[in-house]
Amino acid sequence: MIRSVLTAACLAVLSAAHAQEDPDATFPDELILLPEDVQREAQAGDFNAETAEVPTGMTAAQEAWYRAQMAFVGEDWYLARRYAETAAVSGIPDAAALAGLMARDGRGGEADMAAAAGWFRRAAEQDHPVALYQLGLLARLGDDSLDLGEPRRWFERAARAGHIDAMVAYALALKASSVPQDGQSARRWAERAAQQGSAEGMYQLAQMLDAGDGGERDAEGARIWYERAADANLAEGAFQAGMMWADGEGGEQDDAEARRWLRIAAESNYPPAQGQYGLMLYQGRGGEADAELAAHWFGQGARGGDAESQFLYAFVLAQGDGVEQDLEAAYRWVVAAGADALGAPVHNRDRDRLQAALERALPLEVQARVREAGAGD
Length: 377
Hints:
20 helices, mainly alpha
């Protein structure tokens, strides 16, 4: 649920965007089995993974897997991939998961999604959580040649196998379902991830409680989970917590507390929070007013693509309040504020009035030049 302390257009922020995984993530911590001293030596490049001693009593497959890990930690991608594939063929699911990750990312050879899917499938046959989750991510790409079907089934299997990120992904898939009972399950899975320390799980649970998805609306619970997500370094959680404190939703109203949370989110470079924190400063809510600092934060949010920040920045530029007056720059930003980050039109009477006033003040050739050049300082 997106809120604003200004009567203006709400910003389009998609929950699914918060759950996007880092495509560069390559070696999940749960796959690392090397002793810490061996990891340190490998990272320092103190030995060759191909000739280094390994613990006695290992099978050939176990030795290959051990060497794959040493090579990976030492960033010898070619050797790591070769040994991982050898161990994977011999039936070690962790090795198959690593081979899939390396094939997906093009480490130690060409990127090959089909090969990655094949290695992940091999590990998934033994219900390997990482491999199951990765199959869900590949399925979400929509490449029919991989023959993976719907991502939801892979996320469900991975979630049931204990993969925390998969719990969040499965919760979001259930939330998007048109089946009422799935909404209840979505909330349960989000809570399960949240209880295990997932910042994204905390945020998604807060969103569901806030909106009443999958059960009764619980604003108090939502605010608690937004704050917990913020404490876990999720800027969106701090933003929503701040807005709830500002509006008195889910508990008492407190501008100083709202300002504190919004500042955390703004300093974390979250554009919607930058505009709203600036507004608290501009209005003197929760502390002293500071028009110059407010204008700075409006500009930060505007450059970050937040439509409301763009309108606010245009407003102070037009007024010369906290920043040097610049009608042409104000016009650039008010035009930019006419569409959100996804390109959808923003319906905001205040913005429309400001744009009309600037168009009355600026020559037509200036307006045409601004529209041709686009937004920016």
